[in-house]
């Protein structure tokens, strides 16, 4: 499992882009994790799945609500990473009103999640390989803090807990 002081692994994540802009087309676009975190402070939080109860009712809304406070504390970007495809993450982002606050990053094949060592097998529940619930602060591609939830818990990966690590 990745830990504080480690560099993020080489990986590609996908984001559904809603508007045509420089370097991006409308629809799924691929982004190199190292390139996207270079020279930035990024909060990355991972969760089991889009549209699932705790993820939709608490985890994502907390980061949307605290986005400005996190930026004021020196965070450049906030990423939500889930083992879903970019179309699902885009739809979930629209549902959660994340635009301009949280980037909804798809890890459809769980490659990034596995490289972090933060995967869990939820096949018995019909969900396949998914992410553990976690949050990390990354500075220029290096993990500074990592909070991983115990099974079934939501106590250390929320936006308020990450804000507390930044003060």
Class based on secondary structure composition and strand pairing: alpha+beta
- Quickly count the domains: 1
In total, the number of strands is: 9
User: Span between N and C termini?
Assistant: 26 Å
Low-confidence stretches: none
- Helical fraction: 25-40%
The CATH class, by name, is Alpha Beta
Shape designation: globular
Your description of this structure?
The chain has 167 residues and is an alpha+beta fold. The chain has a single domain, classed as 3-Layer(aba) Sandwich (Glutaredoxin), CATH 3.40.30. It is 29% helix and 29% strand. The protein has 6 helices and 9 strands; from the N terminus they run E-E-H-E-H-H-E-H-E-H-E-E-E-E-H. It has helices at residues 33-37, 53-65, 67-72, 86-96, 111-116, 159-166, and strands at residues 12-17, 27-32, 41-47, 77-82, 103-106, 119-121, 129-131, 134-139, 142-148. It has a 7-stranded mixed β-sheet. Strands 6-7 form a two-stranded antiparallel sheet. A hairpin with a 7-residue loop joins strand 6 and strand 7 (129-131). The protein is globular and about 40 Å long. The chain starts with 11 loop residues before the first strand and ends with a helix. The mean pLDDT is 95. Residues 2-167 form the Thioredoxin domain. Its EC number is 1.11.1.27.
What does the secondary structure layout of this molecule look like, with pairings?
Elements (H helix, E strand, L loop, with lengths): L11 E6 L9 E6 H5 L3 E7 L5 H13 L1 H6 L4 E6 L3 H11 L6 E4 L4 H6 L2 E3 L7 E3 L2 E6 L2 E7 L10 H8 L1
Parallel strand pairs: 3-4, 4-5
Antiparallel strand pairs: 1-2, 1-5, 3-8, 6-7, 8-9
């Amino acid at each position: 499992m990745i830990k504080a002081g480690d560099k993020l692994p080489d990986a590609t994540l996908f984001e559904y882009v809603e508007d045509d802009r420089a370097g991006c087309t409308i629809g799924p676009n691929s982004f190199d994790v190292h390139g996207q975190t270079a020279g930035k402070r990024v909060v990355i939080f991972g969760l089991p799945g889009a549209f699932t109860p705790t993820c939709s009712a608490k985890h994502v809304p907390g980061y949307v609500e605290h986005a400005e406070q996190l930026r004021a504390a020196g965070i450049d970007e906030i990423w939500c990473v889930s083992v879903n495809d970019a179309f699902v993450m885009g739809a979930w982002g629209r549902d959660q009103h994340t635009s301009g606050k949280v980037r909804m990053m798809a890890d459809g094949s769980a490659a990034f999640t596995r490289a972090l060592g933060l995967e869990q097998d939820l096949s018995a529940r019909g969900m396949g390989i998914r992410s553990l619930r976690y949050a990390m602060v990354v500075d220029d591609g290096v993990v500074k803090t990592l909070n991983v939830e115990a099974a079934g818990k939501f106590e250390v990966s929320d936006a308020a807990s990450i804000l507390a690590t930044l003060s």
